[in-house]
Amino acid sequence: MTEDDRTRAMRSPGDGRPLPPRPSDGLRSGGAPAYQVPAGGAGAPTHKLPVASQVPEAPAPRTVPGGSGDEPPRAGSRVYGRERSGSSPVKPLRSGREPSQRAPRGPRKRPSGKTILKIVAGLLAVLLVAAVGMFFWIDSRLSGIDGVLDDYEGRPADTPGTNWLLVGSDSRKGLSAAERKKLRTGRAVGQRTDSMMLLHIPEGSDKPTLVSLPRDSAVTIPGKGRDKLNSAYALGGPKLLARTVETVTGIYIDNYMEIGFAGFVDIVDAIGGVEINVRAAVDDPLAGLKLKKGTQVLNGAQALGYVRTRKGGALPDFERTKRQRQFLGAVVKKAASPGILLNPFTSIPLAMSATDAVQVDSGTGAFDMLSLGLAMGDSPVTTVVPFGGEEPVPSGGTAIKWDRNKALALFDALKNDKPVPKNVLDAG
User: Fold this and answer.
1) Contact, 232 vs 191, CB < 8 A?
2) How far is Cα of residue 413 from the mean position of the Cα atoms in its chain?
3) Which of 12, 206, 254, 296 has the fewest CB atoms below 10 angstroms from its CB?
């Protein structure tokens, strides 16, 4: 006898409490109860069991995901993520958790320090290879002029620091007739210089010094006598000009660079123009230039007119040399800026324009050009050779006389790699 049978036996049939069902009790097919107490018979319960029509229908079996359609779920299985009671859990669906119970994702794993170092090292290696490649490419494109700085009898001894002779020529080479008309350069007039500057780069920590040499300066040209400095270039080209400058200054020239009109325009346009503070309004039809006073960005054509015009100031040539130094410093400083050099869309066109535009002595290479750019980007001290008075010259007209004492003080300071005296700078 089971525990339920003993419970039935101890209860009175008429106490109003239903007998506990047996485990085997259930609904027969058709919905009839498995047993019924005869109506009015002995032991009939005081309550009525529901008739078949009142027994709720059993819910339709649910389909187990992945099952065979109408197959009822087995005990212990999960239906739509719920586990049926009375059974041991089975293998959960996919993630093993209810969607609402899934643990949030943790933070992404960050790269380790070694990985970052490897990436940085790789980028630096690529940049280094690119820089070296561009260095040799630029060096191969430089146009050298043979014999410019050859030794000669009586040449000054090598002096401390590095000295550059920078020349802007009147050459119209590379300009078409339409371009000459647009830039107001006029027709070709032979071999002449438009500007000359001496750049001294010291060995120590002092700033470089940029000195304008007025092209109409009265000097002694070796083998040609007394004449304008510009005549040395017209008579003997770069070689005679460099020798003349060394003779009158006593300074050894290490490097020579020359640029013509066309190259000047191309370089300025390649770097997107140059910002210049125009100190006084300029209106010069001969130079094709009309500028208002104030800071503004000049394109290549405007820049050429700005450094060539003789308008403005009580001493036009003196003001002209100041504009030339101002503009040269601004051009080189912008060209050497990271925004230009690190951008291949500006650095490559600039390199092509510069190497096509300039001519250097045969001993000058890309490394020397880099040192020139760095020196000009260091905001050099600028001045002009002190001068006063005029003297007639054989080529016609008059030339500017240098102030002998102040000029000697200027050149002696550069020759000995010393700062230029302040009274000399004030004069220039």
Assistant:
1) no
2) 39
3) 12
Contact 383, 424 (CB under 8 A): yes
Q: What is the DSSP letter of 187?
A: S
Tokens read off for 139: 């060096």
- Report the C-alpha gap between 355 and 362 in whole angstroms: 14
Please write the tens of the pLDDT for every residue from 26-59: 444 444 454 444 444 444 455 455 555 555 555 5
Instruction: Check if the beta carbon of residue 398 is closer than 8 Å to that of residue 227.
Output: no
CA distance 366 to 141: 9
Both structure tokens of 243: 């020798």
Domains of the chain as residue ranges with CATH: 146-427 (3.40.630.190)
**pLDDT confidence bin for 357, thresholds 50/70/90:** confident
315 is written with which tokens?
A: 């001493």
- Is pTM beyond 0.85? Reply is no
CA distance 366 to 358: 12
pLDDT digits over 213-266, tens only? 988 899 999 999 999 998 999 899 999 999 999 999 999 999 999 887 667 788
Tokens linked to 345: 């869309």
- Provide the pLDDT confidence category of residue 371 given band limits of 50, 70 and 90: confident
Q: How far apart are CA 140 and CA 39, in angstroms?
A: 121
